[in-house]
Amino acid sequence: MLYVNKNLFTSEDIAQVQRHISQMLPKIQITGHIIAAALRDPVEIIALVKEVIHAEGSILLMNGDTPKEQAVQSAQEAGCRVLFHGSLQEGSYPLTGRTQNDIPSLLQFSSGTTGKPKVIRRSWHHVEREIAHYNEALQSDSAEQPIVLVPVSHSFGLITGVLSAIERGAVPTVVTDKNPKFAAHLIQNTPTSIVYAVPYLFHILQSITKNSISFHKAVSSGAPLTGALFEKMKNCTQHVYQQYGCSELGCIAIGEDPVSHTDVGTPLKHLKVEVDGSEKEPGEIIAYMDDYSVHTRDAGWNNAEGRLQLAGRLDDLINVTGLKVIPYEIEQVLFGVDGVEEAVVYKSRHKVWGEAVKAMVVASPHISPEMLKQHCMERLPNYKVPSSIDVVKEIPKTAAGKISRKLLAEQY
């Protein structure tokens, strides 16, 4: 069972959608093939995932707002047999791809924040292992009610938000209502909720409720919480969790009650993580599952207690005259200014220094770029002080609600 906004869907409701799918697409057309889906309805997505697993096939999940032409092209390139776009009621679109997939898998595109998105494949067996070890680490039970504010077309929402909850007997609520006041009201009226969201959404919820919202448990993923938001979340949440993962492995680590905004806890039991770095010089995080290794291109270190700390992307490090600058360090200084709501630091080209530091900030009307720069000069070495700071109404984000420093560096 699950809710979508206020509507309850029973196991039989989902099974009925599965039967409808099997009538449109017999098992023989799924087994050994890749089915593409860019659907908006969470119930249709979950039913299609269940039917594909049952038929020993693979599924490529895309965001439900993906334009049809782009979805067709992406599905075609991935070797998919058919595409479901928009809604199951529109039927399936046949494709020329006939790739035989020996290992039934979940396929998704990487975020694309550091280059062209690529197809990532994870076997259903690996997904099952993730769910089992994730639930062991989360230590939740069926009485707690997950509220999923992120799309179930993404593994954060689908696997750790919905499928893990169903596995432990909980009844998740998937929120598709775009009005954040609906989510805020739902959270306030669900005393045993576990809220799954990205930092930006937690920030929105704090803003519209004027910091009066309270959470039972909150699970944040997609990027580390900022220092200011982390402190706010600690003050209004019984238990804060930071979750860290990648497309290739799903959830890698989760940390209950992190000691800082960089703290993402300890790896799930089926994974091993190595990182050769320190707070001053973060190193690359490398994750291992059995004989498979993933060089994440994320920068971090282990603290004295052995908990993994996340500093951001290695590609985001800024080289100023040979000196390395970590964006999150400067962002925390900017968040130290009362009235700063959002801040991002990124690189730009400089004809003398090679690279320079830039910043984009959302702040109260009384805050000026000059005030922010002076604040940084009093707290940072000269080479870390942003050469320019833009105060804007909104920081551009990707379709998934993430800030891409790479895109900012290219466009600004």
UniProtKB/TrEMBL annotation:
CDD domains: AFD_class_I
Record bears the keyword tRNA-binding: no
All copies of domain AMP-binding enzyme C-terminal, residue ranges: 329-402
Pfam family, one: AMP-binding_C
Keyword Ligase applies: yes
Keywords: Ligase
Entries under InterPro entries matching the protein: AMP-bd_C, AMP-bd_C_sf, AMP-binding_CS, AMP-dep_synth/lig_dom, ANL_N_sf
AMP-dependent synthetase/ligase domain segment(s): 58-285
Family: Belongs to the ATP-dependent AMP-binding enzyme family.
Protein name in UniProt: AMP-binding protein
Lineage: Bacteria, Bacillati, Bacillota, Bacilli, Bacillales
